[in-house]
Amino acid sequence: MHEDIPAVTLPSGKEVPALGLGTWNMGETRSSADDEVKSIRKALDLGMTLVDTAEMYADGRSEEVVGTAIAGRRDEVFLVSKVYPWNASARGTAEACERSLTRLGTDHIDLYLLHWRGEHPLAETVAAFERLKSDGKIGNWGVSNFDTDDMEELFAVPEGKNCAANEVLYNLSRRGPEFSLLPWCQQHGVPLMAYSPIEQGRILKNHELIRIAKAYQATPAQLALAFLLDRDGVIAIPKSASVSRITENRGATDLEITEEDWTALDAAFPPPTRKTALEML
Ligand code: NDP
């Protein structure tokens, strides 16, 4: 048995799990689809019921894999998808959402994000999102890859303050958001969704991460995720298409890290001392 997954509260009052599942690179090949469906279902079984996808991933086939996995279990899932910036016009957003709904095999997306900023004015995209909300096609809307100044600009447009999340690159080796973006989001009650939370596997070879994890009989991935789960208003969405690695990642909630080890992690992965531009993958 694991500790419960902590909940993060959206501005609407809706609670979602702070540990979910990413699906980038799923749907790329037909032969891997069965394993991907199995792993998504395993994540749901383990309570990692927030599933993140996008129209971009595998040209929509990630959404199809997610649709297959959640068929018959839609009510268990908090479904997140994203619109390409070049589709995020008044009409384009509505049309992209319809296509995503079809691929996902559902009549609503719980959280619909603008994948990154593009040429369409924020006010137009926000109005399109609000319309989708009133039509019941989406529950909430949010943004992705928005830095602090982008969030300020968003909050200045009509209904921009209804933004329910900002999904950004954040992990031990990318702590830039801690300087101003994370505090800003915490102050404004906007959850921060941490993408690439284990840096696509690259940080797992770090000697200090391995050393500290071992002291808890944990894995480096579990410690990297525990670091994010320790932060208020942060949701980590590790991707895995392996049932065993999803089970491993779920165990991140069970770690209780001492102050001494947090300090050691800070030494290995220093927090930012000045504002740097938000990084993107
Ligand atoms: P992650 O940091 O989640 O790493 C995923 C990689 O790590 C995969 O190759 C996976 O392989 C492997 N992995 C997962 N768990 C373990 C483990 N316990 N031990 C060893 N390896 C492991 O990277 P992502 O870039 O996929 O980010 C997560 C999600 O965030 C994406 O899938 C996507 O949903 C979202 N995202 C959003 C972006 C945006 O612009 N909004 C940009 C990038 C990501 P395997 O599957 O074989 O287990």
TrEMBL record:
Protein name: Aldo/keto reductase
Residue ranges occupied by any NADP-dependent oxidoreductase domain in the UniProt entry: 19-267
Organism whose genome encodes this protein: Agrobacterium salinitolerans
One Pfam family recorded for the sequence: Aldo_ket_red
Signal peptide range in chain numbering: none
Family matches, as SUPFAM superfamilies: NAD(P)-linked oxidoreductase
